[in-house]
Structure formats: structure tokens, C-alpha cells
């Protein structure tokens, strides 16, 4: 019995998911949470925060040489962010698939970005 619990615990994954300021402003929090819950994943942590520009620069440090870096940092620090930790078997792979491609125009229908992203430009 203890061994079975250890095996189950070992199969559980955790992943970080953030709803950025535009998603919060557009009222998409419950829609995004529902998509994870419908798959049986467990929300084990949630926090509302308003990142500073310095936090955004640290978060996106790997992109600092890219031409869009300053705009990205301005965007992340422009309003509240919902930071979540989800738990479940396969939640890392499923989370990536559910969110969709980084470029919303390349995201499949049925993904969060494919269904909910606003394409600017």
C-alpha cells in the first residue's frame, strides 16, 4: 500500500501557469482554470501579483537581446498576473499543448492561445 502511494506520487507532475495582464483584464481567469480542471488537474497554488519591471526583466532574462524585450517587460508589468501551480499526471506536456504555440497565429483551435489570444500588429 505504501509502495503504491509512492508510485502514484512519483507520477504526479507540477507545472507553473501564468495568466498575464491582458487575460486578467479580459476576464479569462475562470475559462483558463476550467480547461485544466476539466482534464482532472488539481490547482495546488494560486496567487495574484503585480510584477515590477525589474521582476519582468529577470523573468525574461533569456530574451534580453531580442528586439521585443523592453515591450515584453512593459507588458508583463502593466497589470495583475495570476500565478498558478497545477498538479497531475502529464500536466507538463498537457499544459504546453493546451496553451498552444507561443505565436498565437500558429496556435491550433482548441488551445488557449488559439481560441482566446488577440493578435496585434
TrEMBL record:
GO MF annotation terms: nucleoside diphosphate kinase activity
Pfam families linked to this entry: NDK
Similarity comment: family membership: Belongs to the NDK family.
Protein name in UniProt: nucleoside-diphosphate kinase
Gene3D superfamilies: Nucleoside diphosphate kinase-like domain
Enzymatic reactions: a 2'-deoxyribonucleoside 5'-diphosphate + ATP = a 2'-deoxyribonucleoside 5'-triphosphate + ADP; a ribonucleoside 5'-diphosphate + ATP = a ribonucleoside 5'-triphosphate + ADP
The organism of origin for this protein: Trifolium medium
PROSITE patterns on file: NDPK_LIKE
UniProt-listed CDD domains: NDPk_I
Keywords, alphabetical: Kinase, Transferase
Amino acid at each position: 500500500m505504501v509502495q503504491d502511494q509512492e508510485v502514484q506520487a512519483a507520477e504526479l507532475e507540477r507545472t507553473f501557469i501564468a495568466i498575464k495582464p491582458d487575460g486578467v483584464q479580459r476576464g479569462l481567469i475562470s475559462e483558463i482554470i476550467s480547461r485544466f480542471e476539466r482534464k482532472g488537474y488539481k490547482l495546488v497554488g494560486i496567487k495574484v501579483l503585480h510584477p515590477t519591471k525589474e521582476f519582468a526583466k529577470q523573468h525574461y532574462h533569456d530574451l534580453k537581446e531580442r528586439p521585443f524585450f523592453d515591450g515584453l517587460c512593459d507588458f508583463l508589468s502593466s497589470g495583475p498576473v495570476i500565478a498558478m501551480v497545477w498538479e497531475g499526471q502529464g500536466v507538463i506536456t498537457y499544459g504546453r499543448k493546451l496553451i498552444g504555440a507561443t505565436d498565437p497565429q500558429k496556435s491550433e483551435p482548441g488551445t488557449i492561445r488559439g481560441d482566446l489570444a488577440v493578435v496585434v500588429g
